[in-house]
Amino acid sequence: MVVRVAVAGASGYAGGELLRLLLAHPEVEIGALTGHSNAGQLLGPLQPHLVPLAGRTLEATTPEALAGHDVVFLALPHGQSAAVAAQLGEDVLVIDMGADHRLRSAADWDAFYGAPHAGTWPYGLPELPGARSALAGSKRVAVPGCYPTAVSLALFPAYQDRLAEPEAVIVAATGTSGAGKALKPHLLGSEVMGSMSPYGVGGGHRHTPEMVQNLSPVAGTRVTVSFTPTLAPMPRGILATCSAKAVPGTTAASVRAAYEKAYADEPFVHLLPEGRWPATASVYGSNAVQIQVAYDAAAQRIIAISAIDNLTKGTAGGAVQSMNIALGLAECLGLSTIGVAP
What global pTM score does this model have? Predict the structure, then answer.
């Protein structure tokens, strides 16, 4: 089976990471590569690590350029995917790596994005309960945000086994690539090196309603999320420290058992042996997720920590994983749990 794919937004970080993965996918043929401000330029100077594609010219993102492909990936800023997707046929698999089709609540979309809601597509986080069956055969997929990927995978086993109260507190650090490739003064190397800083404090981060959306069905009730993101002096990676009050009767053994059960057969999620803790360096460039969980008996809290590469499992890897499921391919094709070190 040869799958012909197009990538809109090929010059950005997400698009570049997606192409890196697709170049190693044995069933994929890479077709049109499109951009916006970079249309007409060669890809090589913009993505110098993608040597096999260096001579390809970026086209404008038009329905004509994206036509004739089996799969179209939209690696576009939020608010731009919906209009492009609406011009593509129902027979093509469209995978939105932006935010446009993630949220089920139009009110949440309006509150956090301030634009008309484009509707909801099947959600591309296969490890969540019921997600694989929703993705299988689908022609539309919404790739999760990077923070919701890390947080949802860290906490859902505790909620699935009814071990946690529905109030989660999350502090997560991310690398600067999460902010995209556009030049921003606060992301200059001289501003970031040797410094960490919070942002989106007080419930203002756009990924917050997505976390609530993912965790509440598993918990059987609405989960409130207090989320504080921080910017770390590294190019990529997320380390999410998540905690919730334990229900009475919870023990360290019951917490461990819940996570072992949830992730026993997951190819990309690795529950670490007790005593080892996740590190972003361990998942660099891979689709792997590292998770460790502990029970703080004195505080009666469950603490779950996850590490992902925000560009791989948090974006492009999740997109390829979802494509494989939607097309009926082996889920792990083109994806690796092997990181890069040092």
Answer: 0.96
